[in-house]
Each structure stands twice: as structure tokens, then as C-alpha cells.
Amino acid sequence: MTKQEKADDIHRILEELYPTVPVPLDHVDPYTLLVAVLLSAQCTDVRVNKVTPALWALADEPRLMMEQPVEDIRAIIRPCGLSPTKSAAIKELSRILVEDYGGEVPQDWAALESLPGVGHKTASVVMSQAFGVPAFPVDTHIHRLAYRWGLTTGKNVVKTEKDLKRLFPEESWNKLHLQIIFFGREYCPARGHRMKTCPICGPYGRRSLLNKEQ
């Protein structure tokens, strides 16, 4: 079985299991999605979704957020971890959005990635989920699964993103990265993985030289 054949089968399995997928982070517009994704760094989506209602009650748009004391933002988002860095980034990116972009989140890769606290993965999520631009956000979880499934030999998320973009059609990227996240949580966790019953690793885990057991 070639790597492309494996990718095609994995795509088919994910489509069967997750024909529709919601965005895991609660949000109402590009700005709240941007902030939620920033908060999700080294934090679970579940915890972020518990924290953001209080944050939106404080300020749910850039102009209001830039006016808040950073200490007040930090107090709310503390459960997400890295609160000193994240709170400063949220306040500063809000100021930049107001002063440079009319209070709107820019639909532009370079502009997004230049914002405080916003890296390529965060920009990819916003571009794909807020604006519908084809992107393949790769975090450590997707990187782990792609390596486990033999879809990449990359040692970092940059190489993994390139490999996945080559294997899957562009029109599938925005949905597929969410399908992989949901599949990983339900069937293919880092710990306690039951290979024999995993819909993907069961058929391929022991037969493909491209796949390494984790």
C-alpha cells in the first residue's frame, strides 16, 4: 500500500465517521475565534470554552478589550495557563486591530501572523474556520497522528503540514484537520490507545512499513 493509498483510505474513514464537524472552540465571529485559539495554546478546548464566557462578558470586541487592564484579562484567563503572556498578547493585538485594521480581523496571512501571540497554526485556524480559506492547521496532536499513521516522517509540524497538504485535496483541508482532531480524541489517543479496535491503526498499523507503533 502506498502512502497516497493509505491517505485516501484514511480520508474515507474520517468522512464516514465524521460527515459533519463543529469547530471545537466556542466563538461568534473572527475576533472571538482568534482569541479563543490563542488561549488554546497548551490548554484544552474544554477549558478554553469554560473561560471565554467570562472574558466575552468583560469585552467581546477589540475596542473594548484594548481598554481593559491587562490584570483583569489575566485574572479571567488564568486557568488556561501562560496567563501573563496571553493576556498581554490579547490586549496588544486588540489595540493593533483597532488602530491598523479598523477593528476587524484581517483576512491576510502575513497580517495575522504579525499579531502578538499569533503563530502560523493560529492564523491557519482563523483563515480556515473564520474565512473559509483553504488551510491545514497542524498542532502537536495532528502531528502525532500523522506520524503514527505513516503519513509523514517529519520531525516538526512544518514538515507534517507540507506532507498532509500533498496527500489530501485542498478542498478537504478545512474539514479534515477537525476530523483528525475528533478521531484522535475518540479512537487514537496518545495514551491508552487500543490499536486492534482503532478504525485506522487496526487495518494498517502492523502491515505498513511506513507506520511506526507509538
From TrEMBL:
HAMAP family xref list: Nth
A single MF term (Gene Ontology): class I DNA-(apurinic or apyrimidinic site) endonuclease activity
Co-factor note (free text): Binds 1 [4Fe-4S] cluster.
Family from the record: Belongs to the Nth/MutY family.
Keyword terms: 4Fe-4S, DNA damage, DNA repair, DNA-binding, Endonuclease, Glycosidase, Hydrolase, Iron, Iron-sulfur, Lyase, Metal-binding, Nuclease
Entries under SUPFAM superfamilies matching the protein: DNA-glycosylase
EC number: 4.2.99.18
Gene: nth
Protein name, UniProt field: Endonuclease III
Enzyme class: lyase
Function: DNA repair enzyme that has both DNA N-glycosylase activity and AP-lyase activity. The DNA N-glycosylase activity releases various damaged pyrimidines from DNA by cleaving the N-glycosidic bond, leaving an AP (apurinic/apyrimidinic) site. The AP-lyase activity cleaves the phosphodiester bond 3' to the AP site by a beta-elimination, leaving a 3'-terminal unsaturated sugar and a product with a terminal 5'-phosphate.
Annotated PANTHER family: A/G-SPECIFIC ADENINE GLYCOSYLASE/ENDONUCLEASE III, ENDONUCLEASE III
InterPro entries: DNA_glycosylase, Endonuclease-III-like_CS2, HhH-GPD_domain, HhH_base_excis_C, Nth
Domain named HhH-GPD: residues: 39-186
Catalytic activity: 2'-deoxyribonucleotide-(2'-deoxyribose 5'-phosphate)-2'-deoxyribonucleotide-DNA = a 3'-end 2'-deoxyribonucleotide-(2,3-dehydro-2,3-deoxyribose 5'-phosphate)-DNA + a 5'-end 5'-phospho-2'-deoxyribonucleoside-DNA + H(+)
NCBIfam families: nth
Cofactor: [4Fe-4S] cluster
